[in-house]
């Protein structure tokens, strides 16, 4: 039985975060890269547990590509990237608006994504902990597209509500990963857009598909929704390509559910395909993937040999 949370402690954490945000927003935007370097230097030295997780993940993902020294530098760069992402997210509301968003994001010339967004057919947008996934949803809202993002509510209710207001500022709506499944179905039935992170460990009951050469437990809901509601899947990412805060929207794959009709392995085939697309995206810029999380935490349980 988990220990009851302290509302006072949660509120103090919320106040600390609000103060941090105020300080960062008051700083000149040009000073953020230097601050990100300092925060990354500190996090790399203090956060030993996640640093070791990242090194282990990278050793398995790229067994021959990097030396130990190169792996260490890659982990440092990963810390630097995500410290920068946090600072950029804080500045998003004050820096970017519908009139200047093109200065911060390169949109692919391929109109297929726009055509899907403008059509009456529902759409599932799948991404991972790559680049700046918050910016992707933020830009969709600025461009006038309402997407419903699926996310797990934070344990701290004050911080959760604060981040919800930020995420929904441009029209994006949030749905709880657990508990809002019927709402997701309703949105798709009405031709809406759902966006979700699809590279989180799903525990022992998830679907195990190949990700960087290792079985990775993956949630079934994405493929289930796509197949049951005949929803196209688009695998996207927001990859950083320059300073200050310059990103490129990457479209890695379009998956049509009708391609998998009458296949007995349709669910695992669709899950493997979007996971493979995410892997291709990460391989092009590995320093922008969140290697610090335990993506391969659960592994398939081997069959026990029968005792004679």
Summarize the model shown:
The chain has 308 residues and is α/β, with parallel strands linked by helices. Helices cover 46% and strands 17% of the residues.
General description of the model:
There is one protein chain. The chain has 308 residues and is an alpha/beta fold. The protein folds into two domains: 7-95, no CATH class; 99-290, no CATH class. 46% of the residues lie in helices and 17% in strands. It is built from ten helices and nine strands. The protein has helices spanning 7-26, 32-46, 48-61, 68-95, 112-118, 133-142, 157-167, 181-189, 221-228, 266-284, and strands at residues 105-106, 123-127, 147-151, 173-176, 193-197, 207-211, 214-218, 233-242, 246-255. The chain has a seven-stranded mixed β-sheet with strand order 1-9-8-2-5-3-4, with helices on both faces. A two-stranded antiparallel sheet has the order 6-7. α1 runs parallel beside α7. It is globular and about 55 Å long.
Salient structural properties:
10 helices, globular
Secondary-structure blueprint of this entry?
Layout: H1 7-26, H2 32-46, H3 48-61, H4 68-95, E1 105-106, H5 112-118, E2 123-127, H6 133-142, E3 147-151, H7 157-167, E4 173-176, H8 181-189, E5 193-197, E6 207-211, E7 214-218, H9 221-228, E8 233-242, E9 246-255, H10 266-284
Parallel strand pairs: 1-9, 2-5, 2-8, 3-4, 3-5
Antiparallel strand pairs: 6-7, 8-9
Helix pairs in contact: 1-7, 2-4, 9-10
What's the helix count? 10
Radius of gyration: 20 Å
What's the β-strand tally? 9
User: How many angstroms does the end-to-end distance come to?
Assistant: 39 Å
The profile of the biggest β sheet is:
7 strands, mixed
On the 0-100 scale, what is the average pLDDT? 87
């Amino acid at each position: 039985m988990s220990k009851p949370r302290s509302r006072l402690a949660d509120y103090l954490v919320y106040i600390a975060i609000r103060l941090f945000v105020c300080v960062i927003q008051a700083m000149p935007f040009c000073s953020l890269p230097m601050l990100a370097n300092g925060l990354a230097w500190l996090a790399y030295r203090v956060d030993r547990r996640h640093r070791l997780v990242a090194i282990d993940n990278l050793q398995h993902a790229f067994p021959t590509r990097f030396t130990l020294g190169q792996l260490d530098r890659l982990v440092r760069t990963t810390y630097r990237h995500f410290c920068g992402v946090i600072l950029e997210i804080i500045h998003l509301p004050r820096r970017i608006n519908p009139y200047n968003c093109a200065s911060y994001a390169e949109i692919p010339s391929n109109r297929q994504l726009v055509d899907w967004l403008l059509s009456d057919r529902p759409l599932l947008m799948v991404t991972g902990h790559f680049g700046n996934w918050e910016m992707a949803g933020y830009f969709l809202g600025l461009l006038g597209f309402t997407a419903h993002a699926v996310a797990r509510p934070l344990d701290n209710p004050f911080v959760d509500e604060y981040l919800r207001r930020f995420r929904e500022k441009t029209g994006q709506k949030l749905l709880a990963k657990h508990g809002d499944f019927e709402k997701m179905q309703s949105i798709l039935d009405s031709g809406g857009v759902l966006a979700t992170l699809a590279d989180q460990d799903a525990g022992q009951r998830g679907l195990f598909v190949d990700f960087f050469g290792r079985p990775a437990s993956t949630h079934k809901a994405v493929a289930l929704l796509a197949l049951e509601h005949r929803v196209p899947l688009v695998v996207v990412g927001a990859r950083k390509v320059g300073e200050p805060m310059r990103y490129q929207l990457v479209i890695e794959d379009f998956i049509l559910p009708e391609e998998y009709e009458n296949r007995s392995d349709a669910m695992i085939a669709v899950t493997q395909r979007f996971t493979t697309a995410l892997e291709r995206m990460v391989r092009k810029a590995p320093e922008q993937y969140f290697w610090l999380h335990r993506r391969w935490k659960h592994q398939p349980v081997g069959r026990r040999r029968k005792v004679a």
